[in-house]
Amino acid sequence: MALYWPKQNIAFDIVDDPYSAPIERDAFPDIAVIPMTRAQMGDARTMDRVIRILDGSEAAGGGGGMRRAQRRLRRLLAR
Question: pTM to 2 decimals?
Answer without folding.
Answer: 0.64
